């Protein structure tokens, strides 16, 4: 036992040393080449930010038009790069893009890692509810008339996400932070009753609700609050590009180009009239970076508990269902074998992400609403049951048929023979593959983040985006937590294997 833990410690030391060596050998960050302005965004966020057209054309939307204008000022071609919204800073650091331009709010944390331009838009947060909702303003979020917490959806890692977590207690508002759905997806969830409200940038609220683009059946509740600033981000060493972009934004403000673009989408308002003055005092004084790494590590530890709970609830269900499916296929009637074969192949042939979407998003359409956590447990259990069914089927087939025949000749019924003789042997035979699947399940719990289950990977991704200077340390803590969760299972499996011999 001591030797195994020594090996584990040596492995961890080697991983840390390798990461440190990679960081030391890492080349200098790339710089803008002056030929093509590669700007990164996520078109799945929808209008009016970025509106994709044919593949041969650059996207429109107010940010797409701003990118074309700025590239023209630089004398280069603008090229849109489709990326995941919450990973844009990492894409910038890697050199995959030159500019982050997609509703990225200014924050002191981001300014410490990237360089911001002057603001190109002043946004506010807007509460959006269903037309018949009793919610009238922000204070109503604290006065849930049903006595239950209100479910309010936001884009993960957005200003709305940070505001709700700071301004409301957990017993008042349940913050549902999603990333794949985008603004329109969250509004759709409000429309069909899955969410009580959503908080979006006023940009999306005006375009989709007030201007009646697809969501005229929703309404704006309360006044817009919490002004903030959309900026472009470049790498810290791209000082010349930053200055050129600043000059372009100032020129667009001066000659009325920015106002014409925003008027086209109904976005020009009094807040935008102060952009020119705001640019004269940009950026704001940067506070000293917070040094609360231990607090962030604590958040990861609590998220790891959610991961453990998900896995420990899902895997026993998967094992039970998988065993029943395997027995049904081998010892049930022919028609049952056909149905269970379709069950196994359908689940193995479709991704777990799609299965989670069906459980969490499609079942409510027929009146079956399942909480996000239990939807995650169900999705993982159902998906893994197909793999466990194949493990147990292999174990059952490994038992000589003569044992079943002998049991039946002694007067046992088939169910009794299976329960007392065949299944116990098969279960012992498949301990290694089942344990491997259990370890894999711990890591696959990360897919539950798409339905707002805040497990370990989801929490790390949020912290990495909002506190990029801690990215490496937080990543090491996350990797260590996964290792500490999975390694004991390997020890248990080895002990069980020895006992069966």
Number of strands: 10
Known CATH architecture of the largest domain? Orthogonal Bundle
User: Which regions are unreliable across 5 or more consecutive residues at pLDDT < 50?
Assistant: 22-27
Compressed to H and E, one letter per element, the order equals: HEHEHEHEEEHEHEHEEHHHHHHHHHHHHH
Radius of gyration: 27 Å
- Overall number of domains: 3
Structural class: alpha/beta
Task: Identify the overall geometry.
Answer: elongated
Largest sheet: number of strands, sense, barrel closure:
5 strands, mixed
Distance between the termini: 19 Å
CATH top level class name of the largest domain:
Mainly Alpha
The percent range for helix content is 55-70%
Number of helix segments? Answer: 20
Give the CATH superfamily of the largest domain: MetI-like
Concise summary:
The protein is of the alpha/beta class and 501 residues long. It has helices at residues 2-25, 61-74, 88-94, 108-111, 159-167, 182-191, 202-210, 239-254, 257-264, 270-273, 275-279, 293-331, 334-349, 352-362, 372-397, 401-409, 414-429, 431-444, 456-466, 471-500; strands at residues 36-41, 77-82, 99-100, 114-116, 121-130, 150-155, 173-178, 197-201, 218-230, 233-235. The protein contains 20 helices and ten strands.
Word description of this protein:
The chain is an alpha/beta fold. It has three domains: 27-120 and 231-279, Periplasmic binding protein-like II (D-Maltodextrin-Binding Protein, domain 2), CATH 3.40.190.10; 122-228, Periplasmic binding protein-like II (D-Maltodextrin-Binding Protein, domain 2), CATH 3.40.190.10; 293-500, MetI-like fold (Orthogonal Bundle), CATH 1.10.3720. The chain contains 20 helices and ten strands. The strands form three sheets. The protein has a five-stranded mixed sheet with strand order 7-6-8-5-9, sandwiched between helices. A three-stranded parallel sheet has the order 2-1-3, with helices on both faces. It has a two-stranded antiparallel sheet with strand order 4-10. Helix 5 links the parallel strand 6 and strand 7 (173-178). Helix 14 (352-362) crosses helix 15 (372-397) and helix 19 (456-466) runs antiparallel to helix 20. The chain is elongated and about 95 Å long. The relative contact order is 0.10. Residues 22-27 have low confidence and may be disordered.
